[in-house]
Design a protein that fits this description.
This protein is an alpha/beta fold. 39% of the residues lie in helices and 18% in strands. The chain has an eight-stranded mixed beta sheet with strand order 1-2-4-3-5-6-7-8, sandwiched between helices. The longest helix has 15 residues.
């Protein structure tokens, strides 16, 4: 049973956010936001450009980082990082982790064809001074889909798998054709298929949205690094996570799905007890 705070979060989402995501050429053309002042005051933050896109490094101030997280943010491929993303990034740095934050280009100005070379270059750059077993690839929502797609694309690339992968409410199938979605959509206070399909078309750039680099639920699950997936039952992405579980049961892939009853999309990022508990687990996993 979900907490009172989760019910409040769901009500606010339904009133203020339901179905309001749509590709915006103006947003896509804007420079990504700078790290918040509070984060810069609390941690060591540096920036660099890789393949024409910006990447921030957030490190624990005055301490050697234990491990590194490559964090791929969500936002339906059409929005920049939000304050909730930066908060999680700060919590990871508080735990002694270095966090790489790539600002991939947004749709409709950019597509997945721009994103994959960039995030791969960021990962390759990390491995120039780190072992892969010191790196966790993490993402939420659309960013979690890209994070899984990146991990799958490493197979046969000559680059090693990371130590682990953490996916928060991953958007696994851009086609949204799973027959179980309409029932969940009615209960999801945030996401709608119509707005997501508009974003998906822009991100695919005319290519087949079912292909694995756009819909990684259709991609290989082995040999991949161990994967943790966090998902709520009031999340439009839940049915495709269940599809992933079905594949895992058959293929024996190293995927662990953590289901939170009554929780909303990207629930680890929301101010509710369920979210705080999930963040503690995510931080412990990335730091170990």
């Amino acid at each position: 049973m979900s907490s009172p705070q989760m019910h409040v979060v769901a009500a606010i989402m339904r009133l203020t956010l339901k179905g309001k995501a749509a590709p915006d050429p103006v947003i896509a053309s804007q420079e990504p936001p700078r790290p918040p002042a509070k984060l810069v005051q609390r941690h060591d933050v540096t920036s660099r450009r890789i393949d024409g896109f910006e990447c921030h490094t957030v490190s624990p101030r005055g301490r050697q980082a234990k491990r590194t997280v490559l964090y791929v943010h969500g936002g339906a491929y059409i929005r920049h990082l939000s304050p909730r993303h930066w908060q999680l990034i700060s919590q990871l740095a508080d735990a002694g982790l270095r966090v790489e934050v790539p600002h991939y280009g947004l749709a409709p100005k950019h597509t997945y064809r721009d994103a994959y070379p960039f995030v791969t270059a960021v990962y390759r750059d990390l491995l120039s001074d780190l072992d892969a077993d010191q790196v966790t690839i993490m993402g939420d929502s659309a960013g979690a889909g890209l994070a899984l797609g990146l991990t799958q694309s490493l197979i046969g690339s000559g680059l090693p798998q990371p130590a682990k992968v953490v996916l928060i409410s991953p958007w696994l199938d851009l086609t949204l054709t799973n027959p179980a979605i309409p029932e969940i959509e009615a209960r999801d206070p945030f996401l709608t298929t119509s707005s997501l399909l508009a974003a998906a078309r822009s991100w695919a750039g005319g290519d087949d949205p079912a292909q694995p680099r756009l819909s990684p639920v259709n991609g290989p699950l082995a040999p991949l690094a161990p994967i943790d997936v966090y998902i709520g039952t009031r999340d439009l992405c839940y049915p495709d996570v269940q599809r992933l579980e079905e594949r895992v049961a058959v293929e024996g892939a190293p995927v662990n799905v953590i289901v939170c009853d009554g929780a909303v999309h990207t629930y680890p990022l929301v101010p509710a007890p369920e979210g705080r508990a999930a963040v503690r687990a995510i931080v412990r996993s990335a730091a170990s």
